[in-house]
Design brief:
binds adenosine-5'-diphosphate; binds magnesium ion; alpha+beta; about 45% helix; globular; 11 helices; 13 strands
């Protein structure tokens, strides 16, 4: 962190002179609660100790001048709709400015230099970190923090929709904006209510193993999953599967396809698993948390069928070594597993997982240790 900050400050000074203010926001993990968002269920994310950090200063102009250290590119753009920059990284920042303006907020010209250590495209939501960092900063610099935090998350989400072509839900931006050290957040995707739960796994680490595979599938598997869920909900006469129980589902088992049955079963069980994990965390029972993570993996793999060989392999390696919990994180068909690992097993697990995966698939997975940390914030001098 210190070196990232020093680097940003040095480059900012070289390019723009007098220092500005430093802001940061975080990437995120989701401990449990997968494919639940569009079924009105719960997700359970937390911000991590990997951030995008930006130094920002009003420049008295009607344009934004911004340098990306990691991409080593400079962009300059105005604040009107037709001024959209061509670089994709800059479109995130432009989108944030526009979405604030569309909501009646103020954005004027500024200079910025930014960098980050959220791995790009690994499922940790570097884009949400980038959006939240600038949304938080512009709220602080130009709007006296009058835009509430939920709106900041929506500003990030709308940026993805309207300027980056990604039709995402709210979880990533929510986690990045609301993240709090030592806490996960249960977000109710139906009511948008949320609650913090303590996450201080003393004696354990959270480790992501990125398979670095992404299977592109025909026939839009996500839409098919959604359609199954919607069909079953309709049959049950409920708006979403959030309102269904296993008893309800079993009562119509004979009237729906086996495929739809197993899709709905996963969603209904996953909703309950999130609640069980919340209880376990309140009791400080990380063994139960781990058990639920394995159950989620099993459900995603066998019932929802969104796993792939590589992720099942990583899950098996974890299970064989006695890792406390392991599951696919994210939509599936590639990406990461998230693992809850006892400290004394940590190094062995990484060594074995990397070696065995490499032997079988010909490339090494990437490993990211993560700690649940603060989300969007102003960086104080001491940080
Ligand atoms: P992720 O799953 O990490 O959110 P996305 O494809 O949604 O992956 O977002 C990645 C994009 O966000 C990058 O292509 C880039 O435009 C932008 N981005 C993320 N991190 C940085 C960074 N450190 N510097 C510049 N741009 C970044
Ligand atoms: Mg993203």
């Amino acid at each position: 962190m210190e070196s990232m900050k020093a680097k940003i400050q040095k480059i900012f000074k070289e390019r723009f002179g007098e220092p500005g203010t430093l802001y940061a926001s975080a990437g995120r993990i989701n401990l449990i609660g997968e494919h639940t968002d569009y079924n009105g269920g719960f997700v359970f994310p937390g911000a991590i100790d990997k951030v995008i950090m930006a130094e920002i200063k009003p420049n008295g102009l009607d344009k934004v001048r911004v340098y990306s250290i990691d991409i080593n590119e400079y962009a300059e753009f105005g604040l009107k709709e037709e001024d959209a920059p061509s670089q994709s990284w800059a479109r995130y920042i432009f989108g944030i400015c526009r979405e604030i303006q569309k909501r009646g907020g103020t954005v004027k010209g500024f200079d910025a230099v930014f960098a980050g250590n959220v791995p790009l495209g690994a499922g940790l939501s570097s884009s949400a970190a980038l959006e939240s960092c600038f949304a938080f900063a512009l709220n602080d610099l130009y709007n006296s923090n009058s835009i509430d935090k939920f709106e900041l998350a929506k500003i990030g989400q709308s940026t993805e929709h309207n300027y980056c072509g990604v039709n995402c839900g709210i979880m990533d931006q929510f986690a990045s904006v609301f993240g709090r050290k030592g806490n996960l957040m249960r977000l109710d995707c139906r009511s948008m209510e949320y609650e913090y739960f303590p996450f201080n796994p003393e004696g354990y680490k959270l480790v992501l193993v990125d398979s670095r595979v992404k299977h592109e599938l025909k026939d839009s598997p996500y839409n098919k999953r959604r359609e199954s869920c919607e069909r079953v909900a309709k049959m049950l006469g409920v708006e979403t599967l959030r309102d269904a129980t296993m008893e309800n589902l079993n009562a119509i088992k004979g009237e729906i396809t086996a495929e739809d049955y197993f899709r709905a079963k996963f969603v209904i069980e996953e909703k309950q698993r999130v609640l069980d994990v919340c209880d376990a965390l309140n009791a400080g029972d990380y063994e139960t948390v781990g058990k639920k993570m394995y159950e989620t993996h099993e459900g995603l793999s066998k019932d929802y069928e969104v796993s792939c060989e590589e992720l099942d392999f990583l899950n098996d390696v974890a299970k064989t070594l006695g890792v406390t919990g392991s599951r696919i994180m994210g939509g599936g068909f590639g990406g990461c597993t998230i693992n809850l690992v006892k400290n004394d097993l940590h190094d062995d697990f990484i060594e074995v997982a990397v070696r065995k995966f490499n032997e079988k698939y010909g490339h090494e997975p990437k490993i990211y240790d993560v700690v649940i940390s603060d989300g969007a914030r102003k960086i104080e001098e001491a940080e």
